[in-house]
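Re: that backbone. Tokens:
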């Protein structure tokens, strides 16, 4: 097999393909998923629609994913009255018309404590018992300044929610550190503060390199955090949009990812297949590392999420009963 080594470098066979392949490192591949083990716990995130067409798209997405019996589905929230009403309407419709358990996102931005508390009470009265508590971002960008009579940070909101009702509370985590944090350590302290205040789970901002997330888990554990830090998975259906969004939220876009999408700009079919492969590899690698809860940023599009959940072992269940 080392015959080539004795060939002059300019010999036509010196760089022959097969010998090169035979000298490459041998990988056994991702371990197969064990069909006898239970599928991981899943949650799906939606955003509230702005138009009737988007409303139809959202509900088609919800109906498609509902049979996978996720642990919960969450609905995002924006600053400003109309977007808040859309979140409320979507969450209460999920309660009324589906077997799903909704989690309502709630933020601190541009509202007094009293206003935020009122929204939380309305959710409680509507039977919603799970809140994703966030600081939120200033609409249109710009530096965040706490409202004088508002909740300043998500940890304050978690404390406030604990006073209002017996909510299950989830918070945000940043495997690559929140862009406004003064240091990774301060950001980790903040995550611990949110969990100590009463949150029972964190969901990470999306990431593309699995190592980034696994290293973050090590740091969480070293900081004394033991609550689940659920990986947020973003199946990338539009790469250029993902690049823009990643720059804003502090998620790094590795070179290998742009290389994967390179040349697919006008080829949506190939792009979708590439996206499915990337996300499937990511979740399989996480699963192989013992992770058994996943949160999907669906962007109100079900197909990639459905396929990846299927790869993880999720199968449709009979509907009509809310998951335990
Ligand atoms: C899973 C998930 C869901 C999301 N859903 C939404 C949504 O529905 N709507 C929306 O608008 N946005 C949403 N976001 C984005 C989020 O609102 C932004 O990332 C926001 O900038 C930070 O929110 P947070 O809850 O992490 O803030 P916080 O935990 O309050 O932290 C914000 C920043 O402030 C720092 N900080 C915290 N406490 C202090 C303190 N006492 N003094 C100084 N600095 C402090 C932190 O280190 C961090 O840098 C979501 C993010 C994730 C990961």
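Recovered sequence:
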């Amino acid at each position: 097999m080392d015959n080539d080594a004795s060939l002059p470098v300019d010999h036509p066979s010196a760089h022959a393909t097969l010998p090169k392949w035979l000298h490459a490192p041998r990988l056994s591949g991702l371990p197969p998923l064990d069909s006898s083990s239970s599928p991981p716990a899943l949650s799906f995130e939606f955003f509230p629609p702005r138009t009737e067409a988007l409303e139809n798209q959202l509900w088609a997405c919800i109906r498609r994913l509902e049979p996978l019996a996720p642990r919960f589905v969450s609905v995002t929230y924006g600053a400003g009255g109309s977007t808040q009403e859309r979140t409320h309407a979507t969450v209460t419709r999920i309660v009324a018309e589906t077997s799903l358990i909704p989690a309502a996102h709630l933020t601190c931005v541009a509202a007094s404590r009293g206003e935020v508390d009122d929204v939380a009470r309305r959710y409680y009265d509507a039977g919603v018992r799970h809140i994703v508590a966030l600081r939120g971002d200033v609409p249109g960008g710009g530096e965040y300044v706490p409202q004088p009579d508002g909740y300043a940070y998500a940890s304050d909101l978690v404390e406030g929610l604990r006073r209002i009702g017996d909510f299950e509370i989830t918070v945000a985590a940043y495997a690559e550190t929140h862009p406004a944090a003064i240091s990774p350590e301060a950001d980790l302290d903040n995550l611990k503060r949110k969990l100590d205040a009463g949150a029972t789970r964190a969901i990470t901002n999306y990431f593309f390199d699995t190592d980034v997330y696994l290293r973050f888990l090590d740091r969480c554990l070293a900081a004394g955090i033991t609550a689940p830090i659920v990986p947020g998975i973003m199946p990338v259906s539009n790469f250029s949009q993902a690049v823009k969004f990643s720059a804003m939220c502090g998620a790094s876009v590795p070179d290998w990812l742009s290389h994967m999408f390179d040349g697919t700009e006008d080829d949506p079919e190939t792009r979708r297949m590439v996206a499915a492969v990337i996300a499937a590899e990511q979740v399989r690698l996480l699963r192989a590392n013992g992770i058994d809860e996943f949160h999907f940023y669906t962007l109100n599009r079900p197909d990639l999420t459905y396929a990846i959940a299927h790869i993880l072992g999720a199968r449709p269940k009979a509907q009509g009963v809310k998951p335990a």
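DSSP finds eleven helices and nine strands in the chain. Residues 76-78, 105, 107, 132, 134-137, 153-155, 172, 178, 180-181, 186-187, 190, 194, 203, 205, 232 surround flavin-adenine dinucleotide (CB under 6 Å).
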